[in-house]
Structure formats: C-alpha cells, structure tokens
From TrEMBL:
Source organism of the structure: Phycomyces blakesleeanus
UniProt subcellular location: Cytoplasm
Taxonomic path: Eukaryota, Fungi, Fungi incertae sedis, Mucoromycota, Mucoromycotina
Protein name, entry field: leucine--tRNA ligase
Entire protein: shown range: 261 to 515 of 1070
Highest rank taxon of the organism: Eukaryota
Family, as annotated: Belongs to the class-I aminoacyl-tRNA synthetase family.
Length: 255
C-alpha cells in the first residue's frame, strides 16, 4: 500500500451495449437518455493497456452513473465520484449528480470498447476481490501482466456456469505487451504457473506474484507491442500515459 497520495491513470471504457439485465434495470432512469456512459478503471500500469481483454466489476458493489458533462457519464463508486468532483473532473462544481444506480452483478455481460485494447469490443466480467474502497471500483483486466487478472480469468473459464459468464465472453488469450529477460512476454501466466496459482482465491501466492510482476515489468521490461515497441518500460510508461490522456481516452485520478 502506498502511504502518500496515489496517482492513477483513469481509463474511459465506453459502454457499447448493456447486458439484458442492466438494460432492464436502467430503463427507468430518464436522465441517461442521450448520454454516453463510460466505465472508468483506475490503473497503475498504463503501458499495458494494449493488452486489455475485459473489465472487472464486483458483484456485490453498487455503482452509480454520474454526470460528467452534457454528453458523458461515468459508472464508478459513489466514493470515487466524490473524489472526482473534488478534483474538478466533472463540469458542474458542487455536489455530485447521480443519474442512475446499478448493482455490479447486473453489469456482467455488458459489451464495452476500450480504444487502446487490441480487441475492438470486450465484456464486463465478475471478480471476487474488487475493493469498493480503492480506485473507482472498476478494474480493467490485463491477463498478460496482472496475476490477479489472469487467475480470475482462469476461474471464469473453468466455471462459466457458476459465475454466470457465457463462454464467448472469455474466449480470448492474453496478449504479449512487455518482454522481460526472466519471465518472457507473458509474465503473469508464467508466474501463476511457477507458483501453482489455480484461482483468484490463492491470495498469498498472488500477492507474491504481483510484487514480482510489478518490479520485473518496470525495471527489466521492454515494450513488445505498440508505438513504443523496443523502448524500456521505464521510458515508455509516462509517454503512453500522456498519449492516452491527450487522445481523451484517460485522465489523471488521485486518491
Ligand atoms: B492494475 P494499488 Cl497489468 N480493487 O491495472 C482491486 N484491485 C484494483 C482496484 C480495486 N477497486 N482498483 C484498481 N485495482 C488494481 C493493471 C495492472 C495492475 C497490471 C499489473 C498490476 C496491477 C491491469 N489490471 O496492479 O493497491 C489495478 O490493476 C498491481 C498493484 O493502488 C491497479 O493497477 O497499488 C492496481 O490494482 C492498483 O493497486
């Protein structure tokens, strides 16, 4: 855990088509008409965003959809909305304006678009360990570089029915984005295999894997995809973040 304020890159992930349950639950909220809704995910690894394969929400978390400006609304936790209002991310100053609310469980299966991902459309999927008290309560998923994301997807692929996930929503493989000398170009799957991590419930081994993946990726990693292919991650990270921000695909969010 960081002690001081943590700076995140907040990724704007556009809703393309609500799941049937989400569409039914949101139909009564007239204020959403004509708005483009984005799930907003806080990440510490903007350089990995090419490798996004899906987005995770907590099935026990209640989300709000908050007014940003005339055209846009963000789907995040109330806590994140208050922080964003304080950071002047919303056009109107003062109280946050909640346009709608929805439980995370109903969002699963929603079709979304994250411009930097190699996949044109991806899906909202469930994750057990999403904290309502961190970031926006929405986690963008990069199974090539995040052991948590990879282990969660292994659970979902193995037990589609249990998790209420259609097989086609998880029908993809991790995309190599970063190469490290010791762990190759798919560090998260490699570490999960080495540490015999079978599930998102293997918290102790996952914490170790996460630590290694984070350090190796940053200090030893070289980009193997995208505009900064061949650059060291240390040099590419802020450039990629700045590019995402200048293209309007992301913004800085602190907490
Ligand atoms: B990271 P820190 Cl590729 N609950 O983004 C649980 N996890 C959350 C969260 C929440 N509410 N909000 C954000 N996160 C995740 C990418 C990534 C991340 C990679 C590798 C490692 C990694 C893709 N997922 O994080 O406690 C988000 O996942 C390892 C630390 O504030 C975010 O960055 O340090 C990270 O945890 C923030 O965690």
């Amino acid at each position: 855990e960081a002690l001081g304020p943590q700076e995140y890159t907040a990724m704007k992930i556009r809703v393309v088509e609500w799941s049937d349950q989400a569409a039914a639950a949101l139909a009564k909220f007239d204020a959403l008409k004509g708005k483009t809704v984005y799930l907003v995910a806080a990440t510490l690894r903007p350089e990995t965003m090419y490798g996004q394969t899906n987005c995770f929400v907590g099935t026990e978390i209640n989300y709000g959809i908050y007014n940003v400006n005339e055209k846009e609304a963000f789907l995040i936790t109330e806590r994140a909305a208050r922080n964003m209002a304080y950071q002047k991310i919303f056009e109107k100053e003062g109280n946050v304006e909640k346009l709608a609310e929805i439980n995370g469980k109903l969002l699963v299966g929603t079709k979304i678009h994250s411009p930097s991902s190699v996949f044109p459309t991806i899906y909202v999927l469930p994750m057990d360990n999403v904290l309502a008290t961190k970031g926006t309560g929405v986690v963008t998923s990069v199974p090539s570089d995040s052991p948590d994301d990879y282990a969660t997807l292994q659970d979902l692929k193995k037990k589609c029915e249990y998790y209420n996930v259609k097989p086609e929503w998880v029908d993809f493989e991790p995309i190599p984005v970063i190469e490290t000398p010791t762990y190759g170009n798919l560090i998260a799957p490699t570490l999960c295999k080495m540490k015999k991590i079978n599930s998102q419930k293997d918290r102790v081994q996952l914490a170790e894997a996460k630590e290694i993946a984070y350090k190796e990726g940053f200090y030893q990693g070289t980009m193997c995809y995208g505009e900064y292919k061949g650059y060291k991650v240390q040099d590419a990270k802020n450039k990629i973040k700045d590019d995402l921000i200048s293209k309007g695909e992301a913004f800085v969010y602190n907490e």
